[in-house]
Known about the structure:
With 243 residues, the chain is mostly helical. The protein folds into two domains: 3-88, Tyrosine recombinase, N-terminal domain (DNA polymerase, domain 1, Orthogonal Bundle); 104-240, Orthogonal Bundle (hpI Integrase, Chain A). It contains eleven helices and two strands. β1 and β2 form a beta hairpin.
Amino acid sequence: xxxxxxxxxxxxxxxxxxxxxxxxxxxxxxxxxxxxxxxxxxxxxxxxxxxxxxxxxxxxxxxxxxxxxxxxxxxxxxxxxxxxxxxxxxxxxxxxxxxxxxxxxxxxxxxxxxxxxxxxxxxxxxxxxxxxxxxxxxxxxxxxxxxxxxxxxxxxxxxxxxxxxxxxxxxxxxxxxxxxxxxxxxxxxxxxxxxxxxxxxxxxxxxxxxxxxxxxxxxxxxxxxxxxxxxxxxxxxxxxxxx
Length: 243
């Protein structure tokens, strides 16, 4: 079986399962190089191990590729009733690191750094409920409710609570939007890459240090603060789209 054909089949199944475009892109970025390296779908672990040995980057990057391959081969093995070569491959080792987060004074400095209404609304939204960058991109005007917003997450649409201040900022930005999307860049609806660039720029402006500057760090801070303030884990999982 051609690996490219198997990959197309896998991506089609993920799309039919209503996974977000960002998740589909995540799989494609990690599996397309494998399809080029192994044009014929391997039935044994050795070609896969040889490919994994060529993956450059951090331990997290290598683990991500392994994880994508694990999911891909589990699907193909189940769909076509063939042995799964990934069962014989151990995951790459990852150093144990603490999850990067932000302190309250850093969050305050971050907000103070953003005077542009769009940027301030994006930062406030992520701080308020820990939404992902891709979910910020998906936000539509009519999905701003009285006390919640509806966003498209990794596994479909979900409703998350927002504060009065967040709603006010969102409506302010939405009022200037030329179409149904709330947030825009120079050439249309905002992209994940632009959101990462915006957040990194304001983190640097606020004097926040560390190797992982981006929206995911604010998301981690939201999760930590939610639990510290007495929230329960199950509710947190639902808000953050892990349920």
